[in-house]
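Predict structure. Input: RNA polymerase sigma-70 region 2 domain-containing protein, 100 residues.
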Amino acid sequence: MKEPIMQDDILASSIRNGDIPSFTRVYETYHAYLFRFALRFLKSTEHAEEAVHDVFLKLWENRDCLNNECSLKGYLLKICKSHIFQVLTRAGKEQAMLQV
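Output follows.
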């Protein structure tokens, strides 16, 4: 059983400072949740895994913007939703072009 996750404000502050163990802890805590969420919409384990990878990449790349007062789970979910929307929009456009 995993240890309970630290408070979001502490983790956000640590990640913002480049602390890899804190980032790893967030990854291990939320990966499965985000994967299941992405899989519901993308219907592909490969695409869902890629989406989750991109979510955590964006978290790390934009760590300077992390707010201590926000929920990490909510923030990650927002990034995931945005990514899924982009993937589905792109797929819809590609499908429309193939039908022309």
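DSSP finds four helices and no strands in the chain.
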